């Protein structure tokens, strides 16, 4: 027996028990067979669905696919029951209309991708799966956002906004990773690059003035993962550039300390000394003449 058949059989068993409780009789064989066929189709995608069912018929609405809540409108007056089915977990639960509306208002999940490239692949696949690439452009999300607003599809607009925000964060994270491992001339240049990126990643303003060595002692929960992951590296780089500045300052101090200080500055000039010598020589010659 295939995986889809196993899933569909388990789900039909689950919904049959709920049917028996609701109508005090066994589910009709034909209705059960139609449900099994429908569940087998959704099991291939491991989808979540709402089953809208009465004594003799049913319909399904796939969740997280931009389906409108209005799809429930025609079901209200038919003495229907609502069931939330998770094919991935063989799970069937009876729900009320309010819960069905809440589920339909949820948009498809945007996965936590490690790189922008991974997110771009997901977006292209999602656009193809949901049939969005006919009217929208996966490579131009801002264009797609404006189009979704024109279509007045609030679910689609919300989802594209989430994708754009995920893309923005991934770009900043990649910039931050590169900046954390880049070379700098000094501590000032290091902070000038790193600190603004921290702010763009939502780092707490009240901690911005701390050194990275100090920040290692703080609880990092709630910080963007790329910050906490690079904290040891940043502390080492900061210490290195701090040491450079200290060495330069010490070298300047040593140079100043080793230079002799003479209050008779005029006598340190070779030209002045030569003139004095010439005057003395002439005076000596005149005296003996």
What does this structure look like?
By secondary structure, the protein is α+β, with helices and mostly antiparallel strands. It has a domain at 3-104. Helix content is 57%, strand content 8%. Strands 2-1-3-4 form a four-stranded antiparallel beta sheet. A hairpin with a 4-residue loop joins strand 3 and strand 4 (91-95). Helix 7 packs antiparallel against helix 9. Residues 279-289 have low confidence and may be disordered.
Annotation keywords:
289 residues; alpha+beta; 57% helix
Write the H/E string, N to C.
HHEEEEHHHHHHHH
Measured on Cα atoms, how large is the radius of gyration? 38 Å
Largest sheet data = 4 strands, antiparallel
Q: β content, as a range? A: 5-15%
Sequence stretches where pLDDT stays below 50 over 5 or more residues: 279-289
Number of helices: 10
Q: How would the global form be characterised?
A: elongated
Q: What spatial order of strands do you see in the largest sheet?
A: 2-1-3-4
What's the count of strands? 4
How helix-rich are the residues, as a percent range?
Answer: 55-70%
Secondary-structure content class: alpha+beta
Average pLDDT score: 84
First CA to last CA: what distance?
A: 135 Å
């Amino acid at each position: 027996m295939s995986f889809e058949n196993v899933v569909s059989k388990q789900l039909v068993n689950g919904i049959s028990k709920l049917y028996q409780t609701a109508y005090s009789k066994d589910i009709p064989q034909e209705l059960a067979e139609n449900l099994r066929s429908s569940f087998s189709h959704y099991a291939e995608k491991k989808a979540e669905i709402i089953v809208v069912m009465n004594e003799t018929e049913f319909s399904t609405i796939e969740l997280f696919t931009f389906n409108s809540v209005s799809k429930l409108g025609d079901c209200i007056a038919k003495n229907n029951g609502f069931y939330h089915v998770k094919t991935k977990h063989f799970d069937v639960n009876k729900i009320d209309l309010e819960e069905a509306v809440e589920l339909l208002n949820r948009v498809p999940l945007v996965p936590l991708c490690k790189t922008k490239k991974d997110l771009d692949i997901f977006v292209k696949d999602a656009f193809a799966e949901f049939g969005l690439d006919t009217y929208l452009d996966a490579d131009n999300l801002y264009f797609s956002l404006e189009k979704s607003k024109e279509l007045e599809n609030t679910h689609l607009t919300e989802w594209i906004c989430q994708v754009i925000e995920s893309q923005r964060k991934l770009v900043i994270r990649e910039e931050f990773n590169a900046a954390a491992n880049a070379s700098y001339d000094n501590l000032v240049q290091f902070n000038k690059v790193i600190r603004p990126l921290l702010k763009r990643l939502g780092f707490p303003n009240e901690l911005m003035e701390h050194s990275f060595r100090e920040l290692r002692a703080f609880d990092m929960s709630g910080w963007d993962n790329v910050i906490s992951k690079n904290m040891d590296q940043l502390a080492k780089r900061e210490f290195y550039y701090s040491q450079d500045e200290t060495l330069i300052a010490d070298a300047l101090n040593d140079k100043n300390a080793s230079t002799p200080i003479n209050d008779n500055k005029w006598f340190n000039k070779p030209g002045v000394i030569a003139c004095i010598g010439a005057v003395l020589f002439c005076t000596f010659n005149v005296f003996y003449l």
